[in-house]
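Continuing the series of single-chain predictions for the mutant panel. This is the parent chain; the variants come on the following pages.
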Amino acid sequence: MKVFSWRTLACGLLILCGLLSATPNILPPSASQSLPQWYTDNTLSLGLDLQGGSHLLLQADLSEVPDQAQLRQDVMAASLEVVRRRLNETGLVEPLVARQGDDAILVQMPGVADPREVRELLGTTAKMTFHWVLMGGEAVAEMTLPTVEGDQYYRLDKAVALEGKHIRDAQLAFNPQTGAAVVNFTLDTDGGREFARMTADNIGRPLAIVLDGRVLMAPVIRSVIAGGSGEISGDFTPQEAGKLALLLRAGALPVPLEVVEERSVGPDLGRDAINMGLTTGLIGFVLVVAFMLVVYRGRGLIACLGLAVNLVLMLGVLSLFRATLTLPGIAGIILTLGMAVDANILINERIREESRRGRSAAMAVKEGFSRAYATILDSNLTTLIAVSLLFLMGSGPVKGFAITIGIGLVTSLFTAITLTRLLTEWQIRGRERQPIRWGGSGWLDRLSARVPNVMKGRVVGLIASAVLSLAAVTLYLQPGLKYGIDFTGGTLVEVSAPGLAAESLRSVLPQQASLQEMGVDGHYLVRLPVAAEPAITAEQMEQLKQTIQEQSPAASFPRTELVGPKVSGDFSDLSILAVLLAGSGVLAYLWWRFESHFALAATLTIALDLTKTIGFFVLAGVEFNLTAVAALLALIGYSVNDKVVVFDRVRESLRATPDKPLLTLLNESIAATLTRTVYTSVTTLLALLPMALAGGTAVASFAQPMLLGVVIGTSSSVFIAAPLLYWLAQRRACRGEAQLRLTTEEIRRELAQMP
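Parent structure:
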């Protein structure tokens, strides 16, 4: 009883810590003011797709930088710092600036719905230099540069008279005589000394101020400029002069940066996404709880309590790490709600099985948990393999999905093996020697007891699966998937223009643009294919917005996306690699935990499951984007989870009755796990169903394929994986190999029996 008390205390403390960690997310502002800041800051932050904002991916042009890793690292570090300084100068609220890959910089700006000015600001190199204007036939290396307006050219000495890096400060000002906007700049000590010397030696000579290869102005030096300051004048508007001053203060970029990906979400769309996630998640939770109460009654109440605690712990851990919650992350939480019940179902079914054998309540609980542990661990680890690859190779919101799934699996594992066991032991206290009475799902028990010999139809099942997969591959080849711009590149603009007819909008769109009505009056998706240069694509987006607003001045653009050709190509490569690595990781783990034929049977079945799901994408016309890749990897995890449960029972039966005919053993194993298989599938479907029906286009590429994937993954465990395992086991037997390796205990018994 003392051990039980200590376990209760430890479990209670962990749950309390999780609750305290999650609480700041729901505290009203009045309560937060009276608490320490370190505690109230322990909250989830919302991703750009939920709070609105813009995301830019800038690629550095390193073609002029020598191919030396140390040198390129320095160039990227300097570029990162300049970008950060420029954004800080604009006054944006907490912009995120981070390195991505070897040659790119990620910029996220909450609340910035139109990043046009920021894009121009970050895409300007702002390399400023001073050059002497050539007046006659000076014997120097020369260059010819245009003015900013492009209406005049100057012959300049190619040698730099003074570097722009010496500019210490620059501010917008107004000329007192003319009132024109100018930029006053101040040089550092070395720059001021050099500027005084060079002006003293060149009185009467024009000095050109050059910014990014264009001459801003070329004033004639009338006297010595010894104060270390100067003025840049021109035909500037106040906004242009202010931007130039900002660029000079922040410094020049060491290499040009080019926008290769841009995504923007308006605040209204973000609020709608939050409301959708909360509503569908709550409905899914209620449906799962209702189902568990119906099929398990009192025992179902324990599972529901564990589910609620699991949700609290998940939010607590996410808050502890101040994770960013995205729309796919909400989808991950909803999916986890359905999958988290699996461990409770496994435990319940094992306890029920032990009770049928006549064991007392205490022994049934002990044996049930003991036999379920290995299966729970194997099924969760195989799912984590697929999810971890999604985290390592995904980006942005998709990575948020992987984080929530991964944390949800860990917390559900904790609640299943600690909280559920404690509550179960508490439930049977005083009745340890009596049998446990079960109720609520007798019809499924009777069905399990009369499961036909499904292995008799193994050939038909394999042929049917192969035909469906072949048909899916044919559909993939022709007509093919409906790829999103994540993979094709291009521009996507969501248009909200009430009263604007589709015909009117289509008439003003470029010929290469495609128009899709979204089911709401005046709500459209406009797509433009990728252009030869990403910069042209950005211009296309602005021109498209302007054209639409000429037709409908009240038009708004809740969401815009721009993906360059290089980025889309990288997404394609990473997606294929992630799926292949996930399959290889699952194969390696099952090979280690089971046997080679178990691993191969599971991997081949998963491959067949994936092809059928891809066929669904084609038939249903669901867009294949990065969220769809997340669905495929989640499906790998779910499908292998289901197969591990069946295979674990097969392995257990092989150890207990190695002489039993394999066909009989496989059929009995399927019958023994049928209840768990059906229940887990139903809970996952119930959790996903509201999101699939009411989630809208934002999560359609995840929720709808997952619904079909759950059905396919569940049925393939019975009709495909088991027949494949039988076929591979027969080949193994023909080679004279054992079906299972001997455990340490079995080896010890064999040695003890030797003479």
